[in-house]
Amino acid sequence: MVGIEIVEPAEIPVIDFQTLSTGTPQERKTALKQLDDAFQSAGLIHLSNHSIGQDLVDEAFAWSKRFFDLPDAVKELVRHPYDAHDHRGWAAAGTTVSSQGVWDQEDIERIHKTGPVERRENFETGDPYPSKVPNPHFIRNRILPEEIFPGFEAFTKRWWDACVEQELQLLRYLCEILDIPDKDLLGKQQNPHFNRSATGWNHYLSVPAQYLTSGESTRLNAHTDYGQLTLLFQDTTGGLEVKDDEAGVFRPVLPRPGMVIVQVADMLERQSNGRWKSALHRVTIPHHLKHSDPGDGTLIERYSIGFFIQPDFDLVIKPLPGCEAKGRWSSLEWEDEITAGEWLTRRVALEYQQKGSSKSAA
User: Fold this and answer.
1) Which CATH number applies to 14-130+145-351?
2) Closest Cα to residue 108, out of 359, 353, 361, 342?
3) b or e along 180-189 (b: 16 or more beta carbons within 10 Å of the residue's beta carbon)?
4) Residue 156 phi, psi dihedral angles, 5° rounding
5) What is the mean pLDDT of residues 273-301?
6) N or C terminus of the chain with fewer C-beta within 10 Å?
7) Is-contact 45 173, C-beta < 8 A?
8) What is the mean predicted confidence (pLDDT) over 124-150?
9) Angle, CA of 165, 166 and 172, to the nearest 5°
10) How much is the mean pLDDT over the chain?
11) Where are the alpha helices (DSSP H) in the chain?
12) 258: left (phi over 0), alpha (psi -120 to 50) or beta
């Protein structure tokens, strides 16, 4: 059996969105400093009183459970094509393998063939509105027909609108922290029809705990997110962990009901020139079970929803104005000239390397 190291939970700052948006000048200054410090050290925060609202979040989790409860034969109707250029649809458990800093083709193939099985199924949806102009980068969502899954497509529009509104507000505050004269600079990189922003609906299967403690399986391998920012909503099950680089350990990120996790992703780390840290994270056995012997027990299923914020597909990812000085973080190696679309496609291709020949996750 693989030993389970017990560590204390991560101390993730809580930032009040209402303070950021409507606080006094001094209150806003303090909150922005806390946000900057957190992104420089851990790469993530808990955001309270966010603009999306708990009622909509609860509705999103209800839709997620309803979708994943459908028979696999039905979900196959919207199956992910395992194409890095068409990242939409449902992927069965055991299909994807997340990795970090592994680029060699043979190493990737070996990880997919012999590494732990990720006991997670996922469903990816993007911009629900048809592009009104010719656009080679637009990806059509794979949504079940209304007669099979009534109401879901309409919900994805309300969800998308709320997440995009929250995203743009946060990006404006990041420009304020960086003292960029145009506070909408990052927001102007966010034409939803020309980027690959997406919602990732995740269902972690209920499995015997020994599958994870033995090293035979995992829930989600350690990785950084690919885009600019991630809005991450998790249920109360637990299991999310973030890397503490100073201590050299992964620390549990305990669920905080009513809050959303906001974490830095690869492209924003690059745009800040290493000032902000792309948070390396994974999903494993929940913290409270690590303090007891999970033995032959069963891990209950877990749900999470991530809204992955991507800049425009053709945007070259380079340091923003005022970020010329190199910061301390460099999670991954970057080429001098690479676009958001090239980076995203490269990382998605690694995740779906085996293209349909996945190991069993039964």
Assistant:
1) 2.60.120.330
2) 353
3) beeeebbbeb
4) -60, -30
5) 82
6) N
7) no
8) 89
9) 95
10) 88
11) 17-22, 25-41, 54-68, 72-75, 105-114, 152-177, 185-188, 209-213, 266-271, 287-290, 340-351
12) left
AA letter at 64? S
Bridge-based pairing of strands 302-309 and 89-91 is unpaired
Give every CB contact of residue 326 below 8 A, 6+ residues apart in sequence.
273, 274
Tokens representing 354 are 């085996």
State the Cα–Cα distance between residues 61 and 233, nearest whole angstrom. Answer: 9
The backbone torsions φ and ψ at residue 70, rounded to the nearest 5 degrees and listed phi first, read -65, 150
Q: Give 53-69 pLDDT, tens digit per residue.
A: 999 999 999 999 999 99
Residue recorded with tokens 């492209």: 267
Give the model's confidence band at 98: pLDDT under 50 very low, under 70 low, under 90 confident, else very high: confident
Distance between first and last Cα of the chain: 20
Going across the sheet that includes 220-223, the strands are 220-223, 281-283, 240-244, 249-252
Closest Cα to residue 128, out of 193, 204, 62, 182? 193
Cα dihedral across residues 261, 100, 117, 287: positive or negative: negative
CA angle, corner 185, sides to 181 and 191, nearest 5? 165
Q: How many CB atoms lie within 10 A of CB 10?
A: 20
According to DSSP, the β-strands at 217-218 and 198-204 are: unpaired
Query: How far apart, in Å, are the Cα atoms of 207 and each of 134, 253, 333?
Result: 45, 21, 36
Looking at residue 315, what is its pLDDT? 94
List the structure tokens of 133. Answer: 């102009």
In this predicted structure, the answer to whether residue 226 has a pLDDT above a threshold of 60 is yes
Examine the pLDDT at 183 and tell me if it is beyond 80.
yes
Alpha-carbon span 31 to 16, nearest angstrom: 8
Place of tokens 């309270």: 48
Strands 217-218 and 89-91, how do they pair? unpaired
- The per-type count for the chain, helices as H runs and strands as E runs, is 11, 16
